[in-house]
Amino acid sequence: MGNHYIPQFYLKGFTEAPDEDLIWAYRKGDEGAFKVSIRKIAQENYFYSQDMEQYLANEVENPANKVLRKIRELQALTWEDKVTLSKYMMVMWKRVPQGKIWVKKKAPEIIDQVFDRIDRELVELGNLYPSKIDMVEKRRKELRKLRDTKEKDFIYDIWADNIPPDKTPQSVDVLSHMTWRFFIAGNAQYFITSDNPLFFFQWMGIGKEKSEVTFPITKNIALQAIWRTDIVESFFQAHNQVVKEINRRTASISTKFLYSPYTEDWIQKLVNKSTFRLNRIV
Length: 282
Hints:
This protein is α+β, with helices and mostly antiparallel strands. It folds into 2 domains: 3-63 and 79-95 and 163-271, no CATH class; 102-161, no CATH class. It has 9 helices and 11 strands. A 5-stranded mixed β-sheet has the order 7-8-9-5-10. The chain has a 4-stranded antiparallel β-sheet with strand order 3-2-11-6. α3 (79-95) packs across α7 (169-177), α4 runs antiparallel to α5 and α4 (97-128) packs across α6.
């Protein structure tokens, strides 16, 4: 079994029955779904180190699982609970395959800056000590070779180093200060989740006045975080359109998979949809 980038305890909230560990998985590009154990899905071999796996389990997941249980039991959260779950959600955003893809896109720019700085320092060293110019040029050649051969390792290190919540404390603080309300799906509806379940409008971020965050908690409950002071933080019965909108959001940012307690045609259509018209939930 590989490293889980979506925790099994979280996925347990999307099984058909509480006493089973099977979930329906819909893969982009495929026709039809398959039912699979949560132990065998949302994981990859050598996705990250065993030390990272242990850290995430002990320091991020275990504290948040207590909060997730409270939400599943429709209990009010404390401020400490909000901070704990904010850390969990921000880590979730970074630890999934899409998080690695995002870093891979940004990493070359970061790596270039680091290597350019080192190269400039070597050039300056050669100018200061002309007698050492041969050694300096040798080091510059080694530096270019290192840049070409170790880029993949550098990208992984940047991504893995950024996963812990203390690497992005401002994002955790902002999310925990938003107003949280939990939508409860009606009997005929349910929430799905994915391999990248934390949604916000990327172009806006989470700190603007109109920013929204949605995060499916279970098949029956989803979180919405917004900047409104006129709303009480509590549990609300969700209108049909709200459930559909949150499911569209979840599908729109999935990398490869949607996960569901049931198998239905509308989920198959969602997973293979190429464009989404998304609306704010007021």
